[in-house]
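Following up on my earlier thread - several people asked me to post the actual chain instead of describing it. Fair enough. Here it is, all 392 residues.
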Amino acid sequence: MNKRLIAVLVMLLGVVFLVRPYESHAETKMQKIERQLKEIQAQMNAAAESKKAAERRSEDLTNKKALAKTDMFTLLKQIQQTSDQLDATQAKIESAEAKLLKTTSELESAEASRQSRDEQLRDRIRLIYMNGSVSYLDVLLSSKSFSDFVGRFQSLQSIMEQDKEVLSQTESYKALVADKKAQVEADLASVKKLYSDMADKKAELQDQEKEKEVLVASINQKIEETEDISEEAEAALMEFGQKYSKLLEQKKALKTYYTGGKLGLPLKREYRLSSPFGYRTHPVTGQRNKLHTGLDMAVPQGTPVYAAESGTVIVAQSWSGYGNCIIINHGGGLWTLYGHLKPGGILVEKGETVKRGEKIGLVGMTGTATGYHLHFEVRKDGTPVNPAPYLK
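Reply from S.P.:
Thanks for posting it. Predicted structure:
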C-alpha cells in the first residue's frame, strides 16, 4: 500500500478512536447507528481537511514553481545580456590591441627618427670637436665680402638652431607617443579586467540558473506527492460517503426514490455546456488525461440549482476542489452532486430530505473553477458515470 495512503488512513483511524464514545452493552440499534454516523462524519471531516491541506500545499508549490520559472527566465535573459556584453567587450579588446600595436610601431618609428637626428647632431659635434672652430672660421674667413661673411655666419647659426629644434621636436614626439602607448595599455588592461568580471558574472548566473532547475524539479516531485494525497483523500471521502449513506438509509428506513428513468435537469434555464464528462487537460492545474467526472453547465452567478431527484442530503458543505457542494442520495446506490455553489449558496442541510425539482442551491465558482458554472455529477455506487444519459 502507498505510504501516503497509509498515513492518511492512520490519521483517519486516529480520529475514529478519539470520537468513538463508550460502547455500552445496552446500546440500542438506533444508538449504534447514531454513533456510527458520528464516527463516519468525523472521518469525512478529517478526509476533507486532509484533501484541503494537500491542495493548499499543491497551490503553494505551484506558486513557488511559477516564481522559480520567472526567476529562471530573468536569469536566462541576464545570461544572454552578459554574453552580448562579453562579445562587445571582446571587440573593444581587439580594438585596443590594434591601437597598442599601432602606437608601438609609431613609438619605434619615433625612436628611430630620434636616433637618426641624434646621430647627425653627434657627427657635427664630433666634427667640431676634431677640427675645433677652424672649420667654421674657414667658412667665415673665405667670405668674399662683409655681407657674404654675415650671410655665412647666419647660415651656420641657423643650421645649429634647426638641429637643436629638430632634436627637441623628435624627443617631444617620442614622449607623446610613449604617453599614448601607456594610455592604450591602461585602457586594454581595464577592458580585460571588465571582460574577466563579466565572465565571472555569467558563470555565477549560470550556476544560479542550474540551481533553479533543480528547485523546479524538486517542486514538481512534491506537487505529484500532494496530488496523490489529494486523490487518496478524495477516494476515502467517497468511501465514507457510501457508508454514511447506507447508515442513513438504515436509520430513516429510506425508501428508494430513484426507480429508473430520466433525472430532472438541475437548472431551469438555458445553459452552455462548457465541459462534458470525460478525459481532458485540467483548465487550472494543466494536468493531462484527467477525468472530468461531471458536466459543467455555464450560467450566471446566483442561478438557482434544483434537485434532479428526490432523496436525502448526505453532503452540504465546502468540499475541496468542488467548493460549496451538495450530494444527494437517491437510494439504490445513485447519488447526484452539485459543485461550485456560491458563498452562502447551499440552501439545504445534511440529513434533510428534498423533493425532485426543489431549489437546493445557487450557482457560483467556489473551489477550483475558472468561471461561474454548475458542476453536476451522477455517481453510481460512489463511482462517477456520464450524467448525460440520465438527463431529459
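The longest strand covers residues 334-346. That should answer part of your original question.
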